[in-house]
Write a structure and sequence with these properties.
Residues 70-143, 151-203 form the K Homology domain. With 204 residues, the protein is of the alpha+beta class. It is built from 7 helices and 8 strands. It starts with a strand and ends with a strand.
Length: 204
């Protein structure tokens, strides 16, 4: 079901490991369905792999700045077209991703975009191991929607301003190493005074 919420900062789910958890942000969000809500459960097709999922999902631990424990969150931007493919018919695909990774996923409603873009917002939360797999599955689904195994996929992440320096590194050393290890092109948008986040764009 579509759940309306009042304006305000997004609040992490109380239990990130359960499908069906909810959060808040200005606008309207789609609640992640539980697998039991749908007859047939796991009938969603399997996606293809994508190099960009390697860049986002494993890059952070290669650079050595993964936290030790506790739930983690990732905010990804996705197009209107991509959102439909990730949600699936009656929520089939998003439900399966949540169930198999132990993460909670939320996608903003149609026409609810990240500031300055025409992209919807997909927030994923859960333990770090499950979150890496969740990000990978979302990117694999995006890749499969293009219908070509050799076509690049672009992943857009909302990165807190406070974390950008760790990603770029001194004189760009960290982001250059990450790019070399994953084979992906990585760019970070300029800082905007009114926003607390910048866009990290990964293509590969």
């Amino acid at each position: 079901a579509w759940q309306p919420h009042v304006s305000g900062a997004w609040t992490p789910p109380e239990s990130c490991g359960q499908a069906g958890a909810t959060g808040r942000r200005a606008g309207t969000w789609r609640q992640v369905p539980r697998p039991s809500d749908f007859a047939g459960g796991g009938g969603c097709p399997s996606p293809m792999a994508s190099p960009v999922s390697q860049g986002i999902a494993v890059g952070a631990d290669k650079l050595g700045f993964l936290p030790v424990d506790g739930p983690q969150f990732c905010k990804m931007l996705i197009s209107e077209y991509t959102a439909g493919g990730i949600i699936g018919r009656d929520g089939c695909i998003i439900s399966e991703i949540g169930a198999t990774t132990g993460c909670a996923l939320q996608i903003s409603a149609a026409k609810v975009f990240f500031p300055g873009t025409y992209d919807r917002i997909c927030i994923m939360g859960g333990p770090i191991k499950g979150l890496k797999e969740c990000v990978t599955q979302v990117l694999q689904r995006m890749h499969s929607m293009f219908g070509s195994s050799d076509k690049s996929v672009v992943g857009k992440l909302a990165v807190p301003n406070s974390a950008v320096s760790a990603i770029i590194g001194k004189q760009g050393d960290a982001v250059r190493r990450l790019s070399e290890r994953t084979g992906c092109r990585i760019n970070v948008s300029p800082r905007v005074a009114e926003l607390q986040e910048r866009l990290g764009v990964v293509a590969g």
